[in-house]
Structures are given as C-alpha cells and as structure tokens.
Specification:
- This protein is an alpha+beta fold.
- The protein has one domain (22-120).
- 15% of the residues lie in helices and 13% in strands.
- The strands form 2 sheets. It has a 3-stranded antiparallel sheet, with no helix packed on it. A two-stranded antiparallel ribbon has the order 1-2.
- A hairpin with a 6-residue loop joins strand 3 (68-71) and strand 4.
- The longest helix is centred in the last third of the chain and has 9 residues, at 126-134.
- The relative contact order is 0.20.
Length: 136
C-alpha cells in the first residue's frame, strides 16, 4: 500500500521533532476532506494536534508560505517542506526517527515523489459548502 506502509510503524507524530505518542495524535488528510480528500491510509499522516494545525493547508495562502507534505513512494515516508520564511531553499525534512534508519531525502533521481495538494489546487467541495451553510 503506497504511502501507507509507515502508518502503523510511525510511533507517533511524524512531523520533524514531534514526540507525541500515537494515542495523542490525529490523522491529517494530505488532501483535505473539504477538498474531496479521501480517508485512506495513503492520504494520511499521523500528527499531534499542534503540528496538525501547522501543516493544515489554507486555500487562501500561497504554497510558498505553508508547510507541504510529500510522500516518498520508494519508502512511504512523509517529508515536510518548510515555508519559505523558515527555510528559503525549502529543503525537505524528515523526522529524526526515520533519519536514524539511514534514509536520504527524495531527489529527482529517485521515483517521483507523490505531492500533496497545494493551496491553489484546494477548492472546498459542494458537500463542504452544504455543511458550512447549516452551521451559520
């Protein structure tokens, strides 16, 4: 199962530096549910509530100023691309527990990295508009 291989073995929050155990984490949809993102292992990463809020995409902001998540299809591991104000070169980062296993960043030479939706791609689905209208 591509992108889902690491799900059960992540040992908690997969954001670089995250140390919350699995029981304190939430499933983050790489393509949000409000943009018709499916609830599948291949569309999710495990994050603590703090990091979940940090990486949640905002369709009204540029991708360059937001965290992005890439899944390396060769390993199934999530790589986090920081916003430009944190790292102008936007070098992908991996949680240290995966780095200790000798993993290196995905490159153009490796298989194509499956990219999550960017803010420009994210449009709330009609179902979200219906749901939001009932909450006013």
């Amino acid at each position: 199962m591509r992108g889902g291989r690491w799900w059960c073995g992540t040992m908690g929050c997969v954001f670089p530096g995250g140390d919350a155990p699995p029981s304190a984490c939430e499933a983050h949809h790489r393509q949000p549910w409000w943009a018709d993102g499916a609830t599948y292992l291949s569309n999710g990463v495990l994050l603590c509530p703090y990091h979940h809020r940090i990486v949640e995409p905002d369709p009204n902001r540029s991708a360059a100023v937001q965290w992005q998540i890439l899944i390396d299809p060769a390993t199934g591991l999530p790589w986090f691309i920081p916003p430009r104000h944190i790292d102008p070169d936007r070098v992908p980062r991996l949680h240290h527990r995966f780095l200790l296993k000798g993993t290196s960043p995905p490159t153009a030479a490796t298989a194509q990295v499956e990219k999550c939706a960017t803010p420009a791609d994210l449009v709330p689905s009609p179902a979200w508009h219906s749901w939001a209208a009932t909450r006013v």
